[in-house]
Amino acid sequence: MKRQQFKLGPMDNLSYIIWDEASREAAVIDPAWEPAKLAEFMKKEGLQLQCVLLTHAHPDHVNGVDFFTGPTPELPVYLHEADQFMLPEKPRGLKAVADGEDLKAGTLAIGVMHTPGHTPGSVCYRYGGAVFTGDTLFIGECGRVDLPGSSAEDLYESFVKLAALPDGEAVCPGHSYNGDKSTFGVQKEYNLYLKLARTGRREDFLKAVG
Are 89 and 107 in contact (CB under 8 A)? Predict the structure, then answer.
């Protein structure tokens, strides 16, 4: 199980490719801004794209989807149903994901956690000891909750779920804010929002994100 991180575009977006070393089957997470760089990497590594995984539907995380679905319109594109209304155009292969689902894409098995707050349909994907947190959890920060459809209360509940994950799992965020990667053990210690959720301090969390 392998992963590669790409920092792309004017907003320091982080896109990812995950793949199985034996089968060379791969998935792209949040293709944004410069999808040709993702395609170039996959070609160089001999990877076969099985699907696109979207953590949420904000434009800066989905604006590279058409690059991959244009030549292969039936390519599965996974996004939680609660965020699908935000897509400017729904791909033919659009599929919904649900909390607790074990998503199969070729030989890949990817866990799904519904983590609303930043958007109603935000999800985190788990694969190979890493959690791809989109705009829910950043290094030392949390996702914004001042946007249409966002909810500080939902984000707190999502952080409670995330705080229960093993310390050794990697945090792979959707933007390079304060860093590109960490572990849940480190974030439980130094991320104020995760610390407040882990200790059940709901009101303090809501004040902090406000």
Answer: no
Distance, CA of 191 to CA of 125 (rounded, Å): 20
Type of residue numbered 61:
H
Q: How many CA atoms lie within 13 A of 6 on its CB side?
A: 22
Q: What is the pLDDT of residue 92?
A: 96
Given pLDDT bands bounded at 50, 70 and 90, which one contains residue 210?
Answer: confident
Fold of 2-99+111-209: Metallo-beta-lactamase; Chain A (3.60.15)
Residues 138 and 177 sit within 8 Å (Cβ to Cβ) = yes
Per residue in 101-124, pLDDT (tens digit) is: 999 999 999 999 999 999 999 999
CA 42 to chain centre: 19
Confidence of residue 77 (pLDDT cuts 50, 70, 90): very high
Rg (CA), the chain: 16
Question: Domain locations in the chain?
Answer: 2-99+111-209
Question: E strand or H helix at 41, and its extent?
Answer: helix 35-45
Alpha-carbon 24 to chain mean position: 21
Instruction: In whole angstroms, give the CA distance from residue 123 to residue 146.
Output: 18
Token digits of residue 25? 């089957």
